[in-house]
Amino acid sequence: MEPLTGFRASVWSCFKFLPFFCGLLLLGIIKGVLFGPWAWFIMAIGISALVLGLWPMHVIWTYYCIIRTKLVGPVVKLLLLISVSGVLVMWLIVGVLGSVLAGLAYGFLAPVMATFDALGEGKERPLVHCFVDGTWSTITGGCTVVRDMKDMLLHSYLAYMDDLRFHEPPGGKPFEIRVLDIPGAVLAAACGLLMDGIMFTVIALYKFPVMLFKGWKRLIEDLVGREGPFLETVCVPFAGLAILLWPFAVLGAFLASMISSVPLGAYAAIVVYQESSLFMGLSYAISSVSIFDEYTNDVLDMAPGSCFPRFVYRKNQASVESGPLSRPASFRDKQDGKKAPARITSFKSSFDEFNPFKLLDHLFEECQHRGEALVAEGVITPKDIEETKSGKGGSGVLNVGLPAYVILNALLRSAKADSNGLLLRDGCEITSDNRPKNTLFDWFFDPLMVIKDQIKAENFTEEEEAYLQKRVLLISDPKRLKATLPHLPSLNERKQAEIDAFARRLQGITKSISRYPTSKRRFDDLVKALSEELERAMGGSRSVRGSQFQKLKSGLVRMLSQRSMGKTTSIRGYDQEAQLNSNASAA
Q: What local confidence, expressed as pLDDT, does residue 13 receive?
């Protein structure tokens, strides 16, 4: 009998794998039922306690920083104080309810995903991992989430508030708004919120079944043809789970469409202020419905364009619409010549590439490697580590200078290798193609690429690179910087100013990275590792010094004892001689 090929083979492999998939799913659900409530309890109680406990501090400190900031004028401050009151009240409600929902989702999904992930490549004894993974790790993961939330509500929040409070306005003039445009902006925002809220909901509800059945059709086609996320066997469980949970994804997209109506509708106020025209704001409020409908048509591969009216809402925008009911060009028409997105060839490889948290792991591993070398050289002192551990910040050499120093070395390495992206120490290269598709990561990656190109254009010598490295590492400690910077006769004022600019920009990027989620926890682990390395180094030196001190102490004891014995002998001899003289005189 000939083996099955083509479509029949794909269907047979699907049905053959189905019992295995159902068994893993059932095991994951059982673990979710057993361990999920504990993770939910930890996250719900922990995050709610943080939100409620820190809320008074957030209220007082937010008001204080807005009042003291120099970036905006009095009118803007008044508007910010009014608007931030609603945000703080909403945060209190969203934070508590979000902690409960996030705890439920994490407590149930984490064991299920860990069960399927136990069959990944490189895992030894997968049968044991199927039962063990997702049990205790789910509980510890809940504690980690609470810790990261605490770092965000304290460390990141205070850092952003300090920027608001201390930064000087560009050009020395605070930003102020035109008071006469405020009523029109408020009216346009109200109309935009009302219209977008209703129309976005209607459009999303109309396209809900389209997204549901088209998504199922695409996933089933990939399952039968072993394409996309079903290409690798290890990824089949995840893709099968995606088929089962696809309705929840569609429901999430529906809710996201409703939520997106809030910022898009409120943007009408910005249009009114920028164009100084209420008519332009109302035109945008109507046109935003067409823009949303056109965008969803392109995402769902439906007919291009939109039947809703689209007006000109910018004065410098050319009038391309002939009437209110005209069908504007599709977003796809605007992207002619661009390569169409291809199907995912490997679900697992794309997951590894597009994970920004793994890049943070690379950064802090390199920080530990470089930091241990700097501790051994004496550049990082015990005072730096103790001040950082105590939370004082100190000189900033460890919490700001060291990560900037590591990033600078990566930029120098990439510039020398003529890399198109960022070359890591282990040989991995981050380019514009495989970088994480994350807006927060773009804020860091694009400026770093600009700095790398500028460093490459400068073509620094080895002495100038060493000067730049010292400048980046110790820029927060001017006294130590002045004492350790080498003197370079070839360094003119222009190049020195450029080096100083590089150092300041790298330190600014490092401060922004320190506010990224999970960065504070990773940095605390780094400080702990450097502290242990310092203790080992100091312990070795102390043992050598201790043996030398014992030898010195024993030598002093012997010397003093010999001197005391000699002195006693001389005293005794003197007494005997005096006694003989007295006897002779008496005779």
A: 63
What DSSP string describes 86-99? Answer: HHHHHHHHHHHHHH
Is residue 384 within 8 Å of 398, Cβ to Cβ? yes
For residue 154, the 8-state DSSP code is I
Q: Are 407 and 509 in contact (CB under 8 A)?
A: yes
Distance from chain centroid for Cα 439: 11
What's residue 194's pLDDT? 92
Given this model, what pLDDT does residue 216 score? 84
What tokens were used for 383?
């005072």
> 134 — alpha (psi -120 to 50), left (phi > 0) or beta?
left
Distant-in-sequence contacts of 203-211, Cβ < 8 A, 24+ apart = 203/257, 203/289, 203/292, 203/293, 203/296, 204/253, 204/254, 204/257, 204/258, 204/296, 205/254, 207/296, 207/300, 207/302, 208/250, 208/254, 210/300, 210/302, 211/250, 211/253, 211/300
The domain locations on the chain are 10-177, 178-316, 356-539
Residue 122 backbone zone (phi > 0: left; psi -120 to 50: alpha; other: beta): left
Taking residue 152's Cβ as centre, other Cβ atoms within 10 Å add up to 17
What backbone phi and psi angles, to 5 degrees, belong to 2?
A: -75, 145
Long-range contacts formed by 354-360: CB under 8 A, 24+ apart: 354/434, 354/435, 354/436, 354/437, 354/438, 355/436, 356/436, 356/438, 356/440, 356/441, 357/518, 359/430, 359/436, 359/441, 360/513, 360/516, 360/518, 360/519, 360/522
Q: Please report, for residues 71, 167, 168, the alpha-carbon distance to residue 173 in angstroms, rounded to integers and kept in the order given.
A: 8, 12, 9
Cβ proximity of 545 and 483 under 8 Å: no
What is the DSSP track for 396-457?
SIIIIIHHHHHHHHHHHHHHHTT-SSEE-TTS-EE-TTTS---HHHHHHHHHHHHHHHHHHH
Q: Give the type of residue at 151.
A: D
pTM greater than 0.85: no
Q: What stretches in the chain show pLDDT beneath 50?
A: 1-2, 318-354, 541-587
Which of these CATH numbers, 3.30.450, 1.10.565, 3.30.750, 3.40.630, describes 356-539?
1.10.565
Structure tokens at 514: 């320190």
CA atoms within 13 A on the CB side of 141: 20
